Amino acid sequence: MANIRVMVVGAGIAGPVLATFLKTRGYDPIIYERVSSPGESGLSHLLQPNGLRVLSLIPGLLEQMPGHSPDRMIYCSSLDGKEDILVDNDTSPDTMREQFGFPLMGVRRAELHRLLIDTAEKHGVEIKWGHQAIEFEQSEDAVQVTFANGVKDVASFVVGCDGLHSNTRIALFGKEKADFTGLVQFGGLSPTPAALQGNSVLLSIYGNGRHMIAYPVVEGKHAWAITTREAEAKEDWKTQNVEQQDEIRRGPLSAWGFGAGELVKTGQKIAKYGLYDRPELKSWFKGRIVLLGDAAHPTSPHLGQGANQAFEDIYHIMRLLKKYNPSAGQPSTELLSQVFTDYQDLRLLRTSELVRGARKQGEARVVEGIDACRARDEVIRAGSNDDAAKMAQYELFSGPFKDSEM
User: Fold this and answer.
1) What kind of architecture, by CATH, is found in domain 5-67+105-177+278-364?
2) Residue 368: which residues within 8 A CB-CB, separation 6 or more?
3) pTM more than 0.90
4) Rounded to 5 degrees, what angle do the CA atoms 349, 354, 356 make?
5) Taking the domains of the chain in order of start, what are their residue ranges?
6) 139-145 long-range CB contacts below 8 Å, 24 or more apart?
7) Interval 202-219: pLDDT, tens
8) Which residues, at least 6 apart from 228, have a Cβ–Cβ distance to it below 8 Å?
9) Each residue of 203-226: b (16+ CB within 10 Å) or e?
10) How far is CA 215 from the centre of its chain?
11) Is the C-alpha dihedral spanning 278, 280, 283, 284 positive or negative?
12) Rounded to whole angstroms, how far apart are CA atoms 37 and 16?
């Protein structure tokens, strides 16, 4: 009997991981991606213990991960020419593994993406590039998907992993208005500055109306992003042209201490993009079609949990497929409804809390006015000893399982 065909829409970060798990659990996944080939868009990801825990279920994957782990996480304040260290935490791989089982790991997005694509293809997953899904027609036991190039295909069920601008989400729930938050990010990749050489440091710098996070992604290179309030910018994450990049390198952001200014001055492939909010969905599925990752719960980047939460989604949807369909046979719509209902009941509230937490974090980071900034800095300093905050981080990093049920 042929394996059950599952269509994964989107070959970004989540889609290839989901398809790899589906293949190894007896399904026949196929990925359709709207762009024509793997690209260089996006800067980097900070993979955290909860995300790495899920990826560890793919044998050999973590050993190939092209990332770099920080030994320390340092929170700094830079106000009116005065520089102060607020928090200095040990985040070395040994310490993180002892506490949470897995380290923190900075990785360039393009390299992570290539590894996940290669992994899926090595497991026998077919990826069709240049196919933009535009229509979804459901029947009693299948979904027919029509693509912009006229191609049609049929699968038992469909998982929309097509990210922030998800066509699958639009097809299920209609087009939504994306609201500009008033915040813009600049980001790039730079040689590790002299101030940070000899140290593998995740740096979080708080200024007046601006914030930078920077972390190593490979020996001798840091990825960085600055959040600030600015006029509305496109949400496209595209690299600026040469003149725009030079303007950023020479601008006021290049004057920071702690090595931050040097990162800006030497930035490569500097991107600028606006940060937008979208309405929270009350459901993530209709019939035989379900959403996952940013397609379901798009988030601002201030907690660094976007990719990590997508991996948690994947773990739970695979766990529930095993629970309700252990033979990986043809599922009825009723069976899929049970899987998808349990999945969204477990994940919707949790991810909504994290999305709201990320928005709140972003606003707090870029407060304006010296007095307000100093009050913010004291909250950060005190937070390093806050038991509730430590417990929340422990629960986050220890997810989504202790012993895998996949």
Assistant:
1) 3-Layer(bba) Sandwich (3.50)
2) 208, 209, 229
3) yes
4) 95
5) 5-67+105-177+278-364
6) 140/333, 141/330, 141/332, 141/333, 142/288, 143/7, 143/287, 143/288, 143/289, 145/7, 145/9, 145/32
7) 999 999 999 999 999 998
8) 183, 184, 185, 186, 209, 210, 211, 253, 366
9) bbbbbbebbbbbbbbbeebbbbbb
10) 15
11) positive
12) 14
Instruction: Give 299: exposed, middle or buried? Use CB within 10 Å, 0-12, 13-18, 19+.
Output: buried
- And the tokens for 158? 């469909």
| Strands 221-229, 268-277: pairing kind | unpaired
- One-letter amino acid at 254 equals S
3-state secondary structure of 71: coil
Q: What is the CA radius of gyration of the chain?
A: 21
Identity of residue 402: K
Specify the residue for token string 């709201």.
356
Q: What number of helices (H) and strands (E) belong to the chain?
A: 11, 18
107 — phi, psi (to 5°)?
-145, 140
Find residue 273's DSSP bridge partners: 185
40-83: per-residue pLDDT in tens?
777 899 999 999 999 999 999 999 999 999 999 999 999 888 88
CA distance 394 to 110: 29
